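task queued by scheduler; priority normal; single chain, no ligands, no partner chains; default sampling; output format set to C-alpha cells
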Amino acid sequence: MCADDSPGGYPPAVLHDAEPTIQIELEPVDSVVVTTLMDNVTDIFMPDQGPARRAGPAGGSRLAAVMAGGQAPDALIAEHGFSVLVTVAKAGREHRFLFDAGTSPDGVVDNMRRLDIDPGSIEAIVCSHGHFDHTTGLDGLIRVLGRTSMPVLIHPHFWRRRRITLPGREPLEIPTTSRQALTGAGFDIIEEQQPSFLFERSVLVTGEVPRTTGYEPGFPPQQAWLGGSWQADPLVLDDQALIINVKGKGLVVITGCGHAGVVNIASYARRLTGSQPLYALLGGFHLNGPLFEPLIPRVLDDLAAMNPGVLVPAHCTGWRAQHAMSARFPAAYTPNTVGTSFHL
C-alpha cells in the first residue's frame, strides 16, 4: 500500500510485512572515508576521536571590515541540512561521490573550497530524498561544474510537491527541486525504486525501504499534492540510504534524514546483504521533537541488538537522542561536525 491510495488519515507505520533475508552480492571495499560537507553543527575545538578526523580551525581568511587588519577566518559553515562526500577504495582504485547537498545554494561548494576538495572529482550524486535541506546545494554545484552528464540517483517520489501541516499553524509548503533545472544542467537522472549499485557493486543504494518495525512513523505532518488535492504523505517513500561493505569489518550505512526509520534502514541493509554485521551507522536519524522523542528508548534497544561499532547521529537526530546515544553507546558514539572525515 502506498501513501497515495491510503484511506483517510495517516497510513499505518507498517508498510510491508517482514521480508526474508535477501542475498545481494555487495562487493567488499578496502576502506571508506565519509567527509561531512554540511551538518547542523560546526566546532573547531572538537578533538579527533576513533575514526573521526576533525578539520580544526580555518586555514584561510576572508575580508571583514570590522576586524583590525580587515581579515577574519574563512570558517566552515553549518546549517540545518546534510551532505557528505564518500570515497571508497578497492583494489588500488578510488571512487568519490556526493550524498545529499545541504540547504543553501552555496554552503556545500563553499565548504568544499575551504576543505580543498575538488568538486570535479565527484563521479555521481545520490539524493536521500526530495526535501530541500538535502538538495538545494545542487544549485551551487551546477554553477561550479557547468554542464555535466554526472548521474544523479533518486527515488521516483523525489519530485513530489509537499507541505507540512502542524496544529494551530497554516500549512507550509516545502520547496521542490526542479526537474527542468537538473536535466537542463545535463545531469543523468536515474529514478529507481529498487536497490541499485554504484562502482562495480561497491556501493548499494537501498531504494525504497520497507517499513517493518511498526513504530517508526515516517513524517506524519507531511502532505503531497496528488491528483489535484493535498493528501496525506507521511511515509516519505523516497527516503533511501547507502550501504557499503568494508572488508573484515561489516556494513557502513549512511542515512540522510532517516524518514524510513533508522531501525528499518539498518535492518533492511542487513537483510539485503545476507545479515552482514553492522559496523558503522551515520547520518540523520530524525528523532527530534515531540512526535519522535518518545521513540528514543525503543530505537536504542533495537540498535543495541545490531551492535554498531561506530554510531554517528547527525542533522535531524535531535539533542535528546544524541545524549541518550552517548550514554547507551559510549564506545561507539561519535559526535559529528562539519569538516569531519570518518576513516572506516
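post-processing summary
- The chain has one domain: 28-55+72-343.
- Residues 28-55+72-343 form a domain with the Metallo-beta-lactamase; Chain A fold (CATH 3.60.15.10).
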